[in-house]
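ingest -> validate -> predict -> emit
validate: passed (alphabet ok, no gaps, 384 aa)
predict: started
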Amino acid sequence: MGSSRYQFLALVTVGGLISYVAKMLIPPLLPILQDEFAITNFQAGLLMTGYMGAYALAQIPSGLLGEKFGRRRVMAIGMAGSAVTSLLVAFSQSYVHILLLRMLFGVFSGNYYTPATSILAQRFSAKERGMAQGILMMGVPAGTALAPLLALPVSEQWGWRMSFLLVSLAGIAVSILFYILTEEKKEPTHMRDQMVWSSHIFTIGICSFFTGATVFGFLTFFPKFLLSKGLEPETAAFLFSMLAISGLVAVPACGRLSDILGRFKVLLILFTVLLLSLMGFLLVPPRFFPVLVIPTGAVLSGYVPPLMAFVADLSPVRARGFWIGYLNTMAFVGAAFGSAMAGLILDHYTYSELIQFFVVLVLVALIIYLAKVRTIPRTVLTSN
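emit:
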């Protein structure tokens, strides 16, 4: 059992890494895509918003379908489908083609993390969930770090389409390995068993809308923000990768810390650091950005493992698929909103106003979190 659960964890982490590389190829390639297809910042933001919106819509159905028909099967279909749609992006001939394919990519990739998180909650105890979730989420910052390192040199040598081609082939290979090497641990349930109300998780989902809008709106336009500050493209790509690398270290560490110190305390600290880091980009000169990206990257990725483990702790066992799906839905509806609004703001205002917008979103999330989530009874936290 021990070896099989860690084999599963390794495979889904690699799969998540490849998925995030495919997702985050867009931000470093935005200047190239905007030149080739003559699109505005708002239209550029829609390439992330279209993905995020479709991804969000897939979350609750993926949780419910995983509980009903098998999480492994749902995950394998999602992995293979997202790889194929990324492959088709490489052959697209217009902005509309890319936008539609990104939305389809979101539908398929949305069938991944919700079932995976449910399986981890099933196979790892409450005292191990934060660390397990942290390892799973290492694929997110690792994929984000690798995306510009792959996209920029490959696009210079062979064009931007080759990046999507290479990532899709890797995704197809991993999806086949995943289906062959993993096994389903059946846990019979019915749809009606998953409809158990939780005001606590509902409130956490509201917070996730605001933080999701901030994180993905920020990441979508961060490379262009750096270029607007006079940094060279190579420096901007390096700092974008550093943002993700610091997150790579933070996700298992934050997950483990939440196992030891408690989910609420760790999340409160991380939301506060995120607020201060965003304010830093408004106040400090560009020469200090290399220092600032380290805590920023750590919190952008690091808050996710304790948050997902928190919801797994709070969810009734048979309702985990639904509530984890709900949390992801709220986060990625927020992400879709944040990316689109960021582009719209930049079409009419400056990066200063955009960062101020993100600061307000995090402040609202922090206020709701402090006002509502801190009142969760201790008995609820220990019941699962």
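Residues 379-383 have pLDDT under 50 and may be disordered.
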